[in-house]
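Hi there, hope your week has been kind to you so far. For a while now I've been wondering how a particular protein folds. I'm sending you its amino acid sequence along with the backbone structure tokens. Could you read through the record and tell me how the tokens relate to the sequence? Take your time with it, there's no hurry, and the full record follows here.
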Amino acid sequence: MLRRALSYGFRFIVRGRNRLYERGFFLPKSTEVPVISVGNIVAGGTGKTPVTLLLAERLLKDVRVGIVSRGYLSEAEKRKEPLLVSKGAGPLYPPEKCGDEVFLLSSRLPEAIVVAGKDRIKAANMAADAGAEVVILDDGMQHRRIARDIEIVVVNGHDPYGGGYFLPRGSLRDDPKRLREADLIVINGGEEIENNFPQVVVENRPQKVFFSDGKEIDIAEKSCVGVFCGIANPDRFVQAVERMGCKVVETHFVADHRKIGNRELMNFSSRAKERGAELLLCTEKDAVKGLSFSKSALPIGWVKSGLVIKKNQKGWEELVAKVKKLIGES
């Protein structure tokens, strides 16, 4: 009963806030360059950061891209002023200073200008001052204070509406009606949803596996592995590992953005070894957190993965063309 009451209360607050923006009582503030928001309507785990990565990789072929992210559970999140993490030559700060996802983005996209901070307007303008021609907001949908030119919404194809209820009864954090505002809906896994929405379907696929020193691992079919991670949707990572042909014999999950402790890692690796595991695997996001690999009873590898578009490549390219047109007009 309590969760139901809290869920109704949260829904009332969210819808009320949205109406104030829709009716012009609150006005979003514009920035110096076009802004693309990549967000979702549920709490975590849909793949916003991988979509940001995919879009930025595509745009960097033609324009200078800025990426703005909050820097969850990092020093940057607590600062009054945003932190310029990358000037277009890779990360200038470690993950604990800027956040695991921010560090990952600036490492995978060294040409991008990356800024971390809770004030998205200041962060976007900082990216523009550093040379960005367009700014991508990672997890920007609920930050309505900043005006955006393009809205991309990422949904879990297997549960697009968060169980149909707002937090905490379900996982909705925004009104599903806001999907109508989207320039594009990205379905991560599963199939297309209602046909009246512009959408593409993507899938997260493992690409390579590396040791901590950067040496690539050649994983044989039917290898027994243990899997650990601190991400919002760990089951998706387990499924990806299984699609590589591995047999997952033991798992250990911690909260999103959290680093697994040394003792935890030691105990988990011992359990996995007893179950027949030859190797432990984690995500790239976990690997950048500075794990103590020497504390493990088994070697540890991290999986580099990326999104591929399964359906409506044309729709994706149309969105890219729309962004380029915006930049040309700004």
Summary: The chain has ten helices and twelve strands. The chain has two domains: 21-202+308-329, 204-306. The longest helix spans residues 2-22. The two ends are 51 Å apart (CA to CA).
